[in-house]
TrEMBL record:
Organism domain of life: Eukaryota
Organism annotation: Noctiluca scintillans
The name this protein goes by in its record: Uncharacterized protein
Length: 229
């Protein structure tokens, strides 16, 4: 709820057991996301990263110049968050446990992510086995952390009258398609009108309706345009 940021940060700091950070391409430069992550660190909230395939860590230069890297960073001062606190948060994030998403995100792979999040019990059982996930301790020059690699698990085929077309180069769009699919299940229990999400290799065969998930740059992606026409 971005209409009341004081309340938002209070929820993160005082009413959150585990903060799950969805590491997409822009999350580290979005000021309110940075504010939430910093609040979690300052209040010792347990946290875990879910890393998308196209995510990249901010460079050392970006961290040192975070007031430029994070647009509107100065606005966090109103909530007691300084530039120095943000720099420490970027360093803190590198030592958090992380779940690595596969390049091709499916419902089955997201089920594995949920299983990993549930079985870890706020970090108390970080290495408990989960089907479709390989776990290990890893490290870089910044820190040592638990790393969970999710396998690319294909979804089981199901007959449907609806196909969903999405740009698979945009992982947020893929997750949007998966979310829409799950929400529609409550309205179509027979599943014949719950969309089948097309892979880049799929062709439209027996479906009568095409649900097009429009995202930035989707019409510049060859597989998306081919399936559309």
């Amino acid at each position: 709820n971005l209409e009341d940021l004081a309340l938002l940060f209070a929820h993160v700091g005082n009413q959150t057991e585990t903060l799950i950070v969805l590491c997409t391409t822009e999350v580290m430069s979005r000021v309110w996301c940075v504010g939430e992550m910093t609040t979690a660190r300052l209040h010792a909230v347990e946290a875990i990263l879910v890393i998308f395939p196209d995510f990249g860590w901010p460079s050392t230069e970006s961290i040192e110049n975070c007031a430029v890297y994070v647009d509107g960073l100065q606005s966090l001062a109103e909530y007691g968050i300084s530039e120095g606190m943000v720099k420490e948060t970027f360093k803190w994030l590198r030592g958090l446990p992380r779940i690595l998403l596969p390049k091709e995100i499916t419902r089955a792979s997201m089920d594995a992510v949920v299983g990993r999040l549930l079985v870890r019990k706020s970090g108390k059982q970080e290495t408990s086995p989960v089907e479709g996930v390989s776990s290990q301790l890893s490290s870089d020059h910044e820190a040592t952390f638990a790393q969970h690699q999710v396998s690319s698990i294909p979804d089981s085929a199901a007959a449907s009258q609806v196909a969903a077309l999405v740009d698979h180069s945009n992982q947020e769009a893929v997750c949007t398609a998966l979310l829409i699919r799950e929400l529609l299940k409550a309205h179509f229990p027979l599943l014949d009108l719950v969309p089948r999400i097309l892979t880049e290799q799929d062709t439209i065969t027996g479906e009568t309706t095409l649900l097009v998930i429009c995202s930035n740059g989707c019409f510049q992606h060859g597989a998306f345009v081919r399936q559309l026409f």
